[in-house]
Design brief:
Structural class: mainly alpha
Distance between the termini: 76 Å
Strand content: under 5%
Radius of gyration: 34 Å
Largest sheet: 2 strands, antiparallel
Number of strands: 2
């Protein structure tokens, strides 16, 4: 086994050399024949290592044969014996593919000389007819493999041979179309997954041979149905067929334009496959996106959010997405804007399983592609705060109707789900590598200001709602468990305010007294925000619990306004060398704390007055508070 492993490593090196300098291997090419098929089959099947070794040797021949002038008869004889046997017994699709390709390359190379053209034409015709006849034979059981082999012969025989009657295609286009019709009618639509798999594999080969086939209605229909199928296995088959279609690089302008238009048509379906549960399907879709991006067949902005979102997936998927992001950032860094990054992180929530870790490190490395860029960091801060300030889409917040039955289930779940997404976003944002104190304070300041503004207004509305419930209970004699749509929207606003205040408090603790450049970035564990809408409902639908949590968050924000050391200094107290108040300074520190609270109230009052003009232009759900109510909200917040 160790000897086979070492030999495989040598053949891999030779294969790389054969791709770049095939002429160096031409003179010794006959020595490789004994490694092509002289492998014992354990139980009638080649092992994975044996299959890879044979496939690697076939790859070397495929690269070198076009450079061999007048191939020796003995070499042709060995290849004619070994390659058909590989096609018959190949246990994997990669080995089957390279075996057919090598045979077609041999036919093309040897047939280029006039004396062997007739013989090589008969060879390729014989093997192709062998497979098509098997497809017609009702007694033949391995029809799916026969269809795949026939498709591979169509794919790799796109060349002409100089016969006595003139130039003739190795396999005519008419025969390719016959295989296409059989593939569409009998295999792609078959109930068996094995037949479907063979059908789509064959379609991919046929699309490479005749790209125009993908424009036919039948082909468009089966691809669309497969990409929208609920079965991930079937969606993966369609992705594989499209990967084959775009995988072949071509200098044909018409073929390139066709590939571009087809990829634009199916791009949304392909990106949807990125969100499949199976890593194999998602990885295949990601590799296809990577390919079409490399070919310039898709605008980078259309795929950046999804490439950021997959950072939540396993290393296999996140690695492919990150490589795409790196390539985009090298050429078009401005496309990866702060808004796009935040949208991508939110898309990552769709990949997250509750209870599993959030891939903050992988999101951070995507963010770091734009560093050092202080403007990008500050734009990200503003975008995050705006995103949390705003609710879900207008349609989501208005799907529920206020009635005796209470909040619509769809509307309620939409709000709860939106808070879950924002909690996910905040966990990632809490890990961003802020380059200096200025950026960290910017995040703290904006999150705190918006959290206090949103929370103070909402707290008043929640208290009014609680008073109305108490009045209703006093009149009817029974508690009401109905949560009106407007009340639940206030609870939803409270949840968003708590998220902002949690972030503010978390960063304030992490970045307190960090002034030296060596202190940045600060390494801390991710912030885990609580979705307060998921609290146990109780008799009042959770209203009191949400109110209490919002009240605590606002009080904590007030306490964080001034640090203890600063309070002591402002109050005139004396302290030790580290700024900690001594016992003698106790009374002065208490007075300073009281003065600081008053100062915080004044600052908040000024902040809310500044925000009044913004309130007039914002959604009624958030800012329907007149000046008197805002003033009352601040006093009640500090008084509570």
């Amino acid at each position: 086994a160790e000897a086979n492993t070492n030999l495989l490593s040598l053949f891999r090196t030779l294969a790389l050399l054969a791709r770049v300098r095939p002429e160096l291997i031409v003179k010794d090419v006959e020595l490789l024949c004994k490694f092509l098929s002289n492998q014992e089959q354990a139980g009638g099947v080649w092992s994975k290592e044996q299959s890879e070794m044979i496939g690697t040797v076939a790859t070397i021949y495929d690269c070198v044969l076009p450079h061999v002038q007048d191939p020796p008869e003995l070499l042709i004889k060995y290849l004619m014996q070994d390659l058909p046997m590989l096609i018959q017994y190949a246990p994997t699709l990669p080995l089957l593919t390279i075996s057919v390709k090598c045979l077609c390359t041999m036919v093309k190379s040897v047939g280029s000389s006039g004396r062997c053209a007739e013989k090589m034409y008969k060879v390729v015709q014989y093997f192709f007819a062998q497979q098509t006849n098997r497809l017609k034979d009702p007694q033949f059981k391995a029809k799916p493999k026969a269809l795949m082999v026939a498709g591979l012969f169509c794919r790799f025989s796109d060349f002409k041979l100089n016969l006595e009657s003139g130039k003739v295609s190795a396999i005519e286009d008419a025969k390719v179309r016959e295989v296409f019709e059989k593939c569409i009618k009998e295999y792609v639509s078959h109930e068996s997954l094995a037949f479907k798999r063979a059908g789509f594999a064959c379609l991919g080969s046929l699309f490479v041979r005749i790209p125009r086939l993908i424009q036919l209605k039948e082909a468009q229909r089966v691809l669309s149905e497969a990409l929208e199928n609920s079965s991930e296995d079937i969606r993966s088959l369609a992705v594989t067929a499209l990967t084959d279609f775009v995988g072949e690089d071509t200098s044909d302008t018409n073929a390139t334009s066709l590939r571009n238009s087809i990829m634009q048509k199916f791009l949304d379906n392909i990106l949807n496959c990125v969100y499949c549960e199976k890593d194999e399907t998602a990885a295949a879709a990601l590799k296809l996106v990577s390919t079409i991006h490399d070919r310039g067949q898709v605008h980078p902005q259309l795929c950046i959010p999804d490439m950021i979102g997959v950072q939540q997936r396993t290393i296999t998927c996140s690695g492919v997405g990150f490589q795409v992001l790196k390539l985009i950032n090298e050429k078009y860094p401005d496309y990866n804007s702060a808004q796009v990054f935040v949208a991508g992180v939110i898309k990552g929530f769709e990949h997250w399983q509750p209870g599993s870790p959030i891939g903050t490190e992988r999101f951070v490395r995507a963010f770091e592609l734009r560093l050092p860029n202080k403007k990008y960091v500050k734009d990200t801060i503003k975008t995050v705060v705006d995103k949390i300030k705003k609710g879900p889409e207008k349609a989501d917040s208005k799907t529920g109707k206020s009635s005796a039955a209470g909040v619509s289930s769809n509307s309620k779940q939409a709000m709860i789900g939106d808070v879950d997404r924002k909690c996910f976003l905040i966990s990632v944002i809490s890990q961003l590598p802020f380059p200096d104190q200025d950026c960290a304070q910017e995040m703290i300041s904006q999150a705190g200001a918006m959290g206090i503004h949103l929370g103070a207004n909402t707290k008043i509305n929640l208290k009014i709602a609680m008073e109305e419930r108490e009045a209703h209970e006093a009149l009817t004699g029974s508690p009401s468990t109905v949560v009106d749509i407007k009340v639940f929207e206030y609870m939803y606003q409270a949840a968003r305010a708590c998220i902002l205040l949690d972030l503010k408090r978390f960063l304030q603790r992490a970045y307190n007294n960090k002034k030296d450049k060596s202190d940045f970035p600060v390494e801390v564990l991710p912030l885990k925000c609580e979705n307060i809408l998921n609290c146990p409902s109780g008799e009042d639908g959770g209203l009191q619990q949400v109110y209490k949590k919002l009240k605590v968050a606002l009080q904590s924000a007030a306490e964080d306004k001034v640090s203890p050391g600063e309070s002591a200094k402002k109050g005139g107290a004396t302290g030790d060398k580290k700024g900690r108040p001594t016992r003698k300074a106790g009374a002065a520190a208490a007075a300073a704390a009281k003065a600081a609270a008053a100062a915080a109230e004044a600052a908040l009052e000024a902040q809310d007055e500044k925000s009044t003009s913004e309130s007039d232009n914002s959604d009624g759900d958030e800012d329907e508070m007149d000046d008197g109510n805002e003033h009352h909200a601040l006093h009640e917040w500090m008084g509570d």
